[in-house]
Structures are given as C-alpha cells and as structure tokens.
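Can't paste images in this forum, so I'm doing it all in text. The chain is below; anyone willing to post the predicted structure tokens underneath?
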Amino acid sequence: MTSELGRRFAGRVAVVTGASRGIGLAVARRLHAEGAQVVITARKPDGLAAALEEIGGGTDVVSVAGRADDPEHQQEAIDTAVRGFGRLDVLINNTGINPAYGPLTDIDEAAARKIMDVNVLSALAWTRRALAAGLGAHEGAAVVNMASVAGIGPAPGIAYYGVSKAALIGLTVQLAAELAPRVRVNAVAPAVVKTRFAAALYEQDEAGAAAAYPLGRLGEPDDIGAATAFLASGDAGWITGQTLVVDGGGSLRASL
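Text version of the structure:
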C-alpha cells in the first residue's frame, strides 16, 4: 500500500548516524520533513548543534555525540531514541571513513582495520543494538546502509574503502535474509556526491568530474536523502536485501 505522500514517517522514530553534515544530514532532514522523530549522531557536538539548527525540528530531533564505533555511544543513541520517543522504526547506518589513499597493496594495516571497524562492523553493532531495543516490534521497520559504487567495481586510489563497502553490501544481504519479515534491510550506493567527504574526488575539476555522468552533474546530498527515505519507507515495503545504485547514470558508461 502506498503511504500518504509527504508523511511517510509520521509516528516513526529514526536513528541516523554520521548526520552532522553531507549525506547523513540530508537523510535526517528528509525523514524529519516527512514526519519522523529523529536522533542524529556524529563525533563533534558543534557539528551536531549546527545540524539541529538546520533541520529545525524542535523537540522532534535530538543529537548524541560520539564515535560511531564506540559501543557506549551506540547504546546511548539507541536508548535516547527509545527513551525520548518511545520506539525505534528506522536505522540509517551512514557513518563511513576513508583515511587511506593510494594503491591497495600499500595500505597501512592499522588504517585498514579502522576502516573495516567503522564502515562494516559498526553497522552490524548498531543494527544489533537497535534490534535489542525493539526495532522490528512494529510493522514497517527498516535498516538502510550507506554503501558506495566503490563497493561494486574498481575504485582506484580508494580501493580499501571500496573493499569495506563491498563488505557492507554483503552484510546488507545477510541481514536482510536473517531479519525478514520483521525488518527490511537495504543499501544505497552513491557515486560522487558533492560533500566535504568526497571533495578530493571533484574539487580540482568539478566540470570534468561531472562530465563522467550521463545526467551531466555530480550528486547532491538531497539526491541520496530521497533514495534513502524511499528504501526506509513503506513505499519500499516489498524490497529487502537490495542495493540501490544512485550514480547519475555513471554505470551506463561501463556497458557502452
């Protein structure tokens, strides 16, 4: 059944990680605009304060600062949602890092472990804590993981980031199988989006970077916010275990 347009998340509660800026902020803003009560997380309190002001949610949006891979922070954020809003319906695992650039064979092993801890193992930990707190107790529960096109094909220069996102896509499939029918689990795989995180991939020649995409532009955070909201909503009620590629048609180039 199609949800009421514009109010797909009325009465729903969501947790969005890595939501102080960029894609995470766009996702939180979209969910709140469609009626959700939202808990946003990120490392820095100042960034979260600015995000709260931008979302303008009043008492319907709260923040919890901490590292995404810190178990105490994870529990605090989940508890804040349930204690403050009474339930938990949607988890958006958006946090991702990439402190390593260059050939895959040159990566520092400590950096590789950190990337995997934050980009993959944290998503599993957040999901487990959300389930323990009642995610799935109400109809329509959903998890959306923020993957990347780097996890689908070669990603020169950011190869281990791609490895972690491929693992996240695999995690999405396995969780979807295990948690059905109570909780749907899907992923979004963006190409280059105009965020501070991805700036190194386009800032020196944005027009040249955009020319790689048939739709003629780079992605905007709101593009990903809309796709994520769709997968988290009842409009995607018969979709689970899937990765939605949002790439401005970039994947078409490989078939030409």
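Residues 140 and 237 are 7 Å apart (CA to CA). Helices lie at 22-33, 45-55, 71-85, 109-132, 159-179, 206-210, 221-232.
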